[in-house]
Amino acid sequence: MSPVGEVADAPRPKEWILGIHAYVPGKSAGKDGRPLIKLSANENPLGTSAQALAARTAPLAPSLYPDPDSKDLRKALGDLHGIAPERIVMGTGSDELLNLAAQAYAGVGDEVLYVRFGFSVYDIAARRCGATPVIAPDRDYGTDVDALLASVTERTRVVFLANPNNPTGSYIGRSEITRLHAGLRPDILLVLDQAYAEYVAPEDADGALELAASSANVLVTRTFSKIYGLAGERIGWGTGAPAIVDMLNRIRGPFNVSLTAQAAGIAAVADQDFVEASRLHNLRERTRFVAALEALGNHGLRPLPSEANFVLIEFSGKLTAEAAYDGLMEHGYITRWLPGQGLPQCLRITIGTPEQMDDIATALRTMAEAAQ
Ligand SMILES: *Cc1c(COP(=O)(O)O)cnc(C)c1O
């Protein structure tokens, strides 16, 4: 039964671990190994704050363990967001925290719920702890709160929602998030994954941080991997009720945020000008790119509404998503084609520099016209 083979005396992985497919990261090179411009992993095209770069190359003492509690970084985040540092837990990327949330609150016989086209890590997080992943139907690729609530059963323990969502870019506002939370039993943990929250205009915030501050069953996760431009340092954080933070602190890696990561993170938080410049760059370029794509509507291209730093494009005309993916690769760009996530008709493209976005829009137009 096991693909690992029938060796009698070999260690046998748990059944639920065998069901896991490894996370597929965004590629950075083409089939022939030639380097490509990477617009496949939602990294920041402006790079990293100069202050954060300077902090991680300042003299540090790598022979010593880092602060196990990331105290200064939690204080910096707490000051920025108005959160008591005791209510903040750090992770090796928010990925660690998503996995720990499932592990702490779900197990064999329990259900972990999320929307169709949700972030692919949720499936892994659910299966890692032996829980059953349950998928609620989407509404035209977006989050359907009614469908989520209708999919809750007495076995549901954790609900994951990325808002904005990856890979769709879809977003639901404050009233919908409030309605979702109000419709869940208080013993269900609602994990609001805000990896892209800083890209949303402040006046459109979904209120997740307020819910985490006022509820006993909400965990909000955020990351330094996207707008802060520190994906390589692996820093994530979460906030919620003290009991939730305490539980995650018990099971996280003891020194889970490295020395350079803590130094870079503190400097990055201090440089909100870089964050704001990144948000405005993204808004400007995403708006321009979406307009260019909308002009290709007669060729079957449809950009889905996005509040994130990428756009998911649906292809329903002669030019297929796969052909566009290959064509853009020929053109020097790696984007994200997602057949493994049930989206063979879609391509996800990270917002890059103005020149890159113009170049890609032109290449898509040329390919779409040639396919007619
Ligand atoms: C990129 C991303 C993350 C961040 O992962 P890290 O482990 O913090 O790098 C989390 N959630 C979603 C939905 C993402 O797209």
Describe the SSE topology.
Elements: H1 15-18, E1 37-38, H2 50-57, H3 71-81, E2 88-92, H4 93-105, E3 111-115, H5 121-128, E4 132-136, H6 145-150, E5 156-162, H7 174-183, E6 189-193, H8 208-214, E7 218-223, E8 235-240, H9 242-251, H10 259-270, H11 272-294, E9 301-303, E10 310-315, H12 321-330, E11 333-334, E12 336-338, E13 343-350, H13 354-370
Parallel strand pairs: 1-11, 3-4, 3-5, 5-6, 6-7
Antiparallel strand pairs: 2-8, 7-8, 9-10, 10-13, 12-13
Helix pairs in contact: 2-10, 3-10, 4-5, 11-13
This protein binds pyridoxal-5'-phosphate.
General description of the model:
- The chain has 372 residues and is an alpha/beta fold.
- The protein has 2 domains: 119 residues, Aspartate Aminotransferase, domain 1; 221 residues, Aspartate Aminotransferase, domain 2 (3-Layer(aba) Sandwich).
- The chain contains 13 helices and 13 strands.
- The protein has a 7-stranded mixed β-sheet with strand order 2-8-7-6-5-3-4, sandwiched between helices. Strands 9-10-13-12 form a 4-stranded antiparallel β-sheet, covered by helices on one side. The protein has a two-stranded parallel ribbon with strand order 1-11.
- Strand 5, helix 7 and strand 6 form a beta-alpha-beta unit.
- Helix 11 packs parallel to helix 13.
- The mean pLDDT is 95.
- Its EC number is 2.6.1.9.
- Belongs to the class-II pyridoxal-phosphate-dependent aminotransferase family. Histidinol-phosphate aminotransferase subfamily.
- Homodimer.
- Its cofactor is pyridoxal 5'-phosphate.
- Keywords: Amino-acid biosynthesis, Aminotransferase, Histidine biosynthesis, Pyridoxal phosphate, Transferase.
